[in-house]
Structures are given as C-alpha cells and as structure tokens.
Amino acid sequence: MCGIAGYWLNKPNWNDKQHQTTIKSMVEVLHHRGPDDRGSGWERDTGLAFGHRRLAVQDLSTAGRQPLLSQDGRYLLIYNGEIYNAPLLRRELEQQDISFRGTSDTEVLLEALAAWGLDKTLSKLNGMFAFALWNRRDKKLTLARDRVGIKPLYYGHCRGTLLFASELKALFRFPEFTSELDPAAVTEFFQIGYISAPRSIEKGIHKLPPGTSITFSSAEQNPKPEPYWSLHDTVQQIITDRQEITAESALGDLEFLLTKSVKDRLISDVPIGAFLSGGIDSSLIVALMQRLHGSPVKTFSIGFQEQKYNEAEHARKIAKHLGTDHHELMVDPQMAMDVIPQLASIYDEPFADASQIPTLILSQFARKEVTVALSGDGGDELFAGYQRYPYFVNRWAKVNGLGGPLRGALGKLLSLGSALPVPSRFKQAAQSRAELTGVKSFREYYERFNRHWKHPEEILRPEYFQTPAHSLADPGFSVDEAGWIDWMRYQDLHRYLPDDILTKVDRASMAHGLEVRVPLLDHQLIEWSWQLPGSLKQGNQLSETSQQGKVLLRKLLAKFVPQELFERPKVGFGVPLDHWLRGPLRDWAEERLSVDALESSGILNPTSIRQRWQEHVSGQLDWQYLLWDVLMFQEFLSNREQTV
C-alpha cells in the first residue's frame, strides 16, 4: 500500500528547487503510508509534479518504484492499492507482445492503461486502488478510485492550482494552500459522525467518489467525476431482473466466490495475517485462509476488561478450533489515552466512530508480525447483519400503522410527557419518539433516527450551520419494490461503508504501515449478493430482538466451525466509551467540554453540550456518541491550528 500526492500548477513558472521542495514536503507527510521507499518527479514546462511513498508488498525490487513511466513514454503513473487480477491482466497484455520490466501490479496497471485506455482498463480491474495518470502527449491528468472506496483520494484547486493526495495532510503542505471550513460539512459531521463524499471538511477540496474517475486538461479545469461502475445502475438492473435462486445453489456460489476472493488477496511477498474478532465475518475469512494457506495463519484480536465489549474469548476459541497462530492483546483505558491524541492527525477531518480506537490499537499490534492483514468488513452490508435493520422495520411498521390522526395525537401526548417531572431518560425517550411520530415516510424516518445530533443548529453558531447538509442516496428503486432491508443495505453501501467503515480502517491501518484487504468487498461478490432473496440474508424473522441476519454466511461458516462457537448475540467492534467518559477519560473530556473551550472554538455553542455532558457523567443518560462527536471536533480544531 502507498501514499500519493501531486499538483498541476496553473502557471508553470517554478524552478527545479521549488518543485523538489514542495513535492518532497507533500510526500514526506505520508511516510506512514509507505515507509519502504519514496519517489517523485516533475515537469517544468507543464508545472505537473507527482510524489509517492511506497509500502512494498509485491515485487520488492526497485522495478516497483514510482512514479512509473510507460514503455511507450506517453503515460506517467502513481498508484496506491492492489490489483488482485494483475496476473491475469499481465498474461493478456503479454499476448499483445507487451513486455514487463518487473513483477509489480503497478506496471501491469500502467501498461494496461497505455494499451487499452482508461474505460476498458477500469472495467477489467479487480482490486482496491486510487491512482493519478498523466498523459504526457495530450496534457491530461486523470484521477480514479476503486468501486467501493477502499482507498482514499482527495482533490481540489488552490488559487488555480490543482492539488490531489491520499490524505488531506499532504495538501496542507502546498505552500499556497488556504484553509476554510465548509459549513455544510461541519453540519453533516454533527448529524452522522463523519463527512461523506464528495465533501471534505475543507471548502473546495473534494473526496473522489467510489467507482469514478475524473480527467483534467488545460481546457477543462473543473470537470465532474464520471462513474465507471455504479452501485445504483448495478442494483437497479438486478432488482428489475432478479432470478430465483435456491439455498443450496446460493451456498455453493458463495463458497466459490468468497474462496476465490480470499485466494486472490493472499498474493503477497511479505508476511500476511488476519483480524479475528470471533464474529461470523472474520471467522469465515480466517477459515478460508486456513484452508488455502496450508500452514497456521497468523490471527490477531483484542479484548477489554468490560465483558459487554470483550470478544477475545470467542476469538480464542475460533482460533484454537481452526489451528491458527493466534495473538491476543487486552486493551485498558491507558492504551486508549495513548491513542486519542493521535486521532485528529491520523484522520485529518472530524471523524467520530469510536471504534477507530480499537482499530488503531489492533493495527499497531498486528504490524509487529505482518505487513498485510485480511478483515471481515462488508459482511453486515452485503448480508443484512446489522441489528438496526429489523429494529427500523418494526418501529416504522408500528408508527406507520397508527394512521395520520392517531399518530399526531400520540406525538402531542409524548411531547407533554417530556415536560413532566420524571427522570431524564424518560423525558429524552418521550421527546425522541414525539419527533418521530411526525415523519411521513420510511425514508424520512430512517434518516432522522440515524442522526446523532437531531438538531445541530442548537450547538453550532449560525455561520457554521447549513441545512439540509446531507440527504440519503436515491437507489433507483422504492422501498416497496425492493423491501426495507435492501433499501437500507443500499444506503449503507453507498455512504456509511466507504465514508465511515473503510475510512476508519484505511487511516488506522496505514498509520502503522499495515495493508488491510477486504475479501467480502470484491465487486463480483457485491453484485451477486443483490440476487439473494431476503430469506438468505436476514432470514424470515424480523423481530426487534432477532439475532437473524447473514443467514448464508452462517451456513457456510458452519462447514468449518461448530455453530456453538459463533451463534451468539452480535457485538459491535466498539469500546466501553460510556464508562470511560465517566471514569478514566473524564478529566480529558472535561477540559475539552468546558464552557471556555467550547466558546473559544468560535463554532460551538456550549449550552446544549454542557447539559448533555452533565447528564452523562451523572449517569442519568448515555450521551456517549453525541459527546464523542464534540470531543473529536475539538481535537480536530486543535490539530488544525498546528498543521494548517
């Protein structure tokens, strides 16, 4: 895995020293993404510069060094990622009498682009990637990102100069970069805890959406991203023409597709292992790795003293049954305290998924033994594993079944209840339900229920509040056509997966030079999953407390692991944040949530935040997620003062 950065000056008047100093500075701040090597290059006549940091995983020789020039001299490439079908593409290119200097997938990607062009090459790629391609003849710069958004890529203009990089911190090193927060991004962050593509926290800087490319030229400096793969189109086509599939046939297809995906992701010239939580997804990935590998796979898990969050024992039992070389680390609050000061600089933007803490600790732990790790991310989105899916379906059915007049009356009654002299938790529940009785559609219900701060205008100064800050994606089909579960799966695949889950994993793992591969997110597996009926994803029972979900994954895992080792209530990959904020993290949090600290931000209003903080530390209510939003935003602002 690697880090890339570059720019294209609007006025190519820099000398070699200016180029060297600037691109070196931009690339060096990405050292963590590629500690093994670095490379850079520039053209004085065009003002284009490319920089690269390399984490050597395939072809450890200098033949894999970037920027890499195509054999015909027309194209220059910098690239971050892995192309899993590179051997197949290489053979196809060799049949066209194209020779290779080394064995890296970088060279395969470059020569494919030179021989087949952008559209054909992107359609053939199977992998995770973000790259920049310079056409030296036509003076065109193309940026592209993988279908699901596993690898990041930012771009934007600064005083007419085009900038791009794997992480925002590289853009900050450009000498003329000016920082301005985007109010829409600030508002969205407090609504959902992260910032979704194409926005970034910086006004004028964008995330390239997954499955798109964008091409700049002197004549076109503000083009729009063009999709080469669309979840919208893929799902719409399958929903329209969904074929009948039996459970037996589906199980065979899943085993074939997932085994192939795992096998493809085992190609490496460096040590490889896997994250193992003891849950269904990671256990299945490890089981298939173990079957393919032939020797004990190195597996890694972490645990907590708080049993509610501790899956270490489950992971240990799975590892023992499968015969892996298992490594376990117990996490205490001091480890979290050691990690928290790093979070803002690692993520660059406000990011408030608290599982970033264990992900970072686990990545650091695994990196001591391996350079590549496979993870089970994606199983919940593909196979309907989230417990909130049946929860939302049942709650909406109850609310919607009341009818307009009765629902309105209930809303008024609940609003009155929130004003009664009862414990705070009852007031909060009554107020929340009163607001939800007024929604008119499942879409509106889902969006409002998912919000962290229901009314971010309460805590943001007017100049930093912008509404509507975000909206749900249009999947091209209605809830009635596909069903509630598939509609929610689409929303998660479109936004939550790339902008929360995959962002979390990429930054946490790359902070320690660890490459994480995600077998469940092979695009062929994603497309196939939409063929499945609900009975093979979430099951037939949709009670709010149902432990159904991932039916087909459970069936396949049962071929390798006894059911009693994995059939248990789902535990998310989280931390005991509620407890820590009242205990070991309390002083740290109080310092950042004090009236003075909140007011000095110039963005936040203290009143509502202080109220929730006091309710939380007193034990009246659990506001851990809302408070973590504010804490991570405060950390972001502090880091921004030092780096921008």
Mean pLDDT: 91
In the CATH hierarchy, what is the class of the largest domain? Alpha Beta
| Protein structure class | alpha+beta
- Estimated radius of gyration: 25 Å
Distance between the termini: 26 Å
Helical stretch tally: 26
- Number of β-strand runs: 17
Give the neighbour order of strands across the main sheet: 2-3-1-9-8-10
Describe this structure as you would to a colleague.
This protein has 644 residues and is α+β, with helices and mostly antiparallel strands. The protein has 3 domains: 2-229, Aminohydrolase, N-terminal nucleophile (Ntn) domain (Glutamine Phosphoribosylpyrophosphate, subunit 1, domain 1), CATH 3.60.20.10; 240-386 and 481-565, 3-Layer(aba) Sandwich (Rossmann fold), CATH 3.40.50; 576-644, no CATH class. It has 26 helices and 17 strands. The strands form 3 sheets. It has a 6-stranded antiparallel β-sheet with strand order 2-3-1-9-8-10. A 6-stranded antiparallel β-sheet has the order 4-5-6-7-11-12, with helices on one face. A 5-stranded parallel β-sheet has the order 15-14-13-16-17, sandwiched between helices. Strand 14 (298-304), helix 10 (312-322) and strand 15 form a beta-alpha-beta unit. It is globular and about 65 Å long. The model has no long low-confidence stretch (mean pLDDT 91).
